[in-house]
Amino acid sequence: MGAGLDTALRGGPFHVALRAAIAARGLPLQRVQHHLTRHGVKVGVTSLSYWQQGARRPQRPESLRAVRALEEILRLPQESLIRLLAEPADDRASARRPQGRSYRSLVEASGVLHRLLAELDAPLDGGLHMLGHHERVRIGAGRELLACESHHIVRARRDGVDRFVAVHHGDPGCAPDRVAVHALENCRTGRVRRHHETGVLVAELLFGTRLRAGDTFLFRYGVQDGTAGESREYVRGFGPAGGQYALQVRFDETALPARCHRFAQPSTAAPRTGHRDLPLTRTHHSVHVVEPRVRTGIVGIGWEWGGG
Asked: d(Cα 14, Cα 77) in Å, to the nearest integer?
């Protein structure tokens, strides 16, 4: 057993240990599922994927049977995975992350997002490839997320695409019914859906034209928030890999953070990596990151407030 796998089994959390064990055996999830079937346990490939991403945890008796079978299939010590399920995932995750949105809130929000998109009959990629996305965020005098503005450059993957679905995930305490979406250039606002418990809002931005496969399009919109409490980070999630992403966060001159940093995550369940301090410009009171080519996952800027 390799040192990395041994560390994951001793320290967890469960999804990290499971992912490390599957990688160490070199088995695709379809093969893992096949082995489970031979052990008399039925688990879908999607469930296995969610387990190793941390999006779900095995809880039902049948799922716990599968975990015990996985210990045998992956040649792990008995009880090595089961015991990790007895430890709260959120406590372990919070020990690895700076203060900000909790692991649970991000996972819950991702589930809500899928439901809201389904209501709008909108696929996750929307039939568009992101060539460029420039985003500007404003933090107010009360340390709250005031607003953000997005400028998109996209290319249609197929014929007939005529809209984009914008997603806004407010800070804890956000009141989505008081959050406004403004179409600023080459689009107009369509249907809007809100989920109050998680602070998630999705809104259609209608292009007024149907794109053909390969066509490019530019549009710009803004989100007016200011409804939540103290903000500590801003994150943007990406599905398929895309083009350039630039994020700028500007602070009110009366409420400047003590320090700022950039971070990334391959998924909401993964540890944050790629930490880099970001200097705050004295004249414009802002920080920024530029990702020449985004990968699947999350990119964000976090900051810490000083005393007072």
From this structure: 14
